[in-house]
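User: SRCR domain-containing protein. Structure?
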Amino acid sequence: MALLSFLSASNLGLLLIYYNGSYGTVCDDEFSMNEVQVLCTEQGFSSDNGIAVSSEKFVFIQDEFQVYLDTVRCRSYIDTTIGRCLNDGFHSTNCDTIESVGIICQVQGSSCKNGDIRLMGGTRAAGRVELCIGGQWGTICNKGWNDKSANRVCNQLEYKKGIPSLAGQFPAGIGPIWGSEINCTTLASLLGRILTHLVFLTACGRYQ
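Assistant: Predicted structure:
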């Protein structure tokens, strides 16, 4: 079992399972919090606040992996590993690779939760936007970032409105770069948009 990620984060990525000499993916059909909790615990992360992510936009996987498992069903307090959970059997699936599931596990002992936002490297009301995902703080590329996105962040931080800053205006971050083209008006859509881009290689640099 492994999580494939192109970010500097071991707690999130595409869920892969090793079978018969190679890795394949797991279909997201019926993949719920039970399965997330079992998987994250098995990988050594917290069983709380994990998320299953639809990989419909993980285009790069289509030529890389086959779907190995479908309809994985873990029984609470009984199954301690994904391998013990019920499933339809290897290669018994009607899922396409774009239906493969991705996972975000919460880092043990983290003080932030999914969707928390902070401003860093500036003042209390201005700075580099950082978003917490899976217990880790990361930055957001400014490509596609607009007034609506800035307003959403500032509203969550209890300010009336905001404006996007210029690239390089604040010091670069050191965590993962969560994604680009993130232009959303609500926190739910902001977080959802980022989650579907998690394993993409971004062309953004640290000062973007």
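The helical segments are 33-42, 147-156, 187-195. The domain at 2-106 is CATH 3.10.250.10 (Mac-2 Binding Protein).
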